[in-house]
């Protein structure tokens, strides 16, 4: 975070928290649109995104930014879909800078022309996160179902030429884990300050493609060893983050640092979300910024309070001496795998349903370690598949996979 953003944050008016002692949100994820020119097999947008077409207007987004800043948020991610699909992105960036946010553009790079970079720079954008699907054209283009590898390379050069700090982001899975060394080489050659190697989290589209994407334990071990070797070799030249997939663990992650703890997401249609996968959960009415003030949403809404604290927990979490460490894990994963979001995340080996996770890992070990693109059918993110999955009760649990 920049010094000016920190200074401004101290001065930002704070909403008085409720008696519960809930602090303010620290970061705001503005998902400006679900529109995207890519069709990634692991897309983190909800599989029923076609059912949420309405987008907030420019004025409504400006109001969200102002309210979030007053509430205390200091970090702001512009995301999507592809946020560059919004013509008003430059206006929103300028407003965010004026309010004192530290701003990050999370993009596939499609539409990031020199002219757009000039304007974003002039309007005060701080940081850009550019996604690649792989270090090879073949796999990058297969996994996004587009021909975008060369364009992304040009965009990466342009980002650096405009003087932006850059995070290269690559989602990892069984197809590209054997390429981790080449992906790191690519990031170094591009001058990225950070490389985020994010192993796939199995929600939404990734859950629908779980059988195809789930790696073997051996692939993961080898990739981690490669990352360690590079870290020793390159020092601070590029900081590499390696996010381990929790299916291979026996304790879950402290998801979003706790429900309603620091993260506030606003979906393209204005739904406020405690995590970007939360709208897949049943029985929760997510408040909308169109008709409810952000402070009321954050402090008082049922959706944001439902999984705060410990009272909602069932056994074994309720009496567990580790509950303050992981807060029972991920509510979305608990729902996807056990059909009850208040259950323990079954990644935990104390969960009576942990065997479901073990079975997935075991099945992954029985498939050939490396797959050529197209070798198994993959369900790509597109409108037709979204409409088909929207009819299914547990979003992301595809009745049958299809090739696009
Ligand atoms: S994951 Fe791929 S398809 Fe999904 S929003 Fe990002 S670039 Fe678009
Ligand atoms: S039982 Fe619940 S609280 Fe305890 S370690 Fe497992 S997930 Fe965490």
Automatic annotation (TrEMBL):
It catalyses: [PQQ precursor protein] + S-adenosyl-L-methionine = E-Y cross-linked-[PQQ precursor protein] + 5'-deoxyadenosine + L-methionine + H(+). SMART domains: Elp3. SUPFAM superfamilies: Radical SAM enzymes (SSF102114). Residues 385-404 are annotated as: Disordered. The keyword Metal-binding applies. Binds 1 [4Fe-4S] cluster. The cluster is coordinated with 3 cysteines and an exchangeable S-adenosyl-L-methionine. InterPro entries: 4Fe4S-binding_SPASM_dom, Aldolase_TIM, Elp3/MiaA/NifB-like_rSAM, PQQ_synth_PqqE_bac, PqqE-like, Radical_SAM_PqqE_MftC-like, rSAM, rSAM_sf. [4Fe-4S] cluster binds at residues 36, 40, 43. Pfam families: Radical_SAM, SPASM. It comes from the Bacteria. Residues 22-237 form the Radical SAM core domain. PANTHER family: PQQA PEPTIDE CYCLASE, RADICAL SAM DOMAIN PROTEIN. Interacts with PqqD. The interaction is necessary for activity of PqqE. HAMAP family: PqqE. Belongs to the radical SAM superfamily. PqqE family. This is PqqA peptide cyclase. It comes from Paraburkholderia bengalensis. The gene is pqqE.
């Amino acid at each position: 975070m920049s010094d000016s953003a920190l200074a401004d944050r101290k001065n930002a008016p704070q909403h008085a928290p409720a008696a519960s002692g809930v602090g303010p949100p620290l970061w705001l994820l503005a998902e400006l649109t679900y529109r995207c020119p890519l069709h990634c097999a692991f897309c983190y947008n909800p599989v029923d995104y076609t059912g949420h077409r309405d987008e907030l207007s420019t004025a409504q987004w400006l109001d969200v930014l102002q309210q979030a800043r007053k509430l205390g948020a200091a970090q702001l991610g512009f995301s999507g879909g592809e946020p560059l699909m919004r013509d008003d992105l430059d206006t929103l960036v300028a407003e965010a800078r004026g309010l004192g946010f530290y701003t990050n553009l999370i993009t596939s790079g499609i539409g990031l022309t020199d002219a757009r970079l000039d304007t974003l720079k002039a309007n005060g954008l701080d940081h850009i996160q550019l996604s690649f699907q792989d270090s090879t054209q073949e796999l990058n283009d297969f996994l996004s179902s587009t021909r975008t590898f060369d364009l992304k390379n040009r965009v990466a050069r342009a980002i650096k030429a405009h003087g932006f700090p850059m995070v290269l982001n690559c989602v990892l899975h069984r197809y590209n884990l054997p390429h981790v060394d080449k992906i790191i080489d690519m990031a170094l050659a591009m001058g990225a300050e950070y490389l985020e190697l994010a192993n796939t989290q199995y929600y939404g589209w990734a859950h629908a493609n779980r059988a195809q994407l789930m790696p073997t334990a051996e692939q993961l071990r080898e990739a981690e060893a490669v990352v360690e070797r590079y870290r020793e070799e390159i020092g601070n030249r590029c900081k590499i983050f390696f996010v381990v997939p929790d299916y291979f663990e026996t304790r879950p992650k402290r998801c979003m640092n706790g429900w309603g703890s620091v993260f506030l997401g606003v979906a393209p249609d204005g739904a406020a979300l405690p995590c970007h996968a939360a709208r897949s959960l049943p029985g929760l009415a997510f408040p909308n910024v169109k008709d409810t003030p952000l402070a009321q949403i954050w402090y008082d809404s049922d959706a944001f309070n439902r999984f705060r604290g410990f009272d909602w927990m069932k056994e074994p979490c309720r009496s567990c001496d580790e509950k303050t460490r992981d807060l029972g894990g991920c509510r979305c994963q608990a729902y996807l795998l056990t059909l009850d979001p208040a259950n323990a995340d079954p990644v935990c080996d104390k969960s009576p349903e942990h065997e479901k996770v073990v079975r997935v890992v075991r099945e992954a070990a029985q498939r050939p370690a490396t797959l050529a693109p197209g070798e198994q059918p993959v369900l790509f993110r597109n409108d037709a598949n979204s409409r088909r999955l929207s009819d299914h009760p547990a979003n992301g649990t595809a009745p049958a996979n299809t090739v696009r």
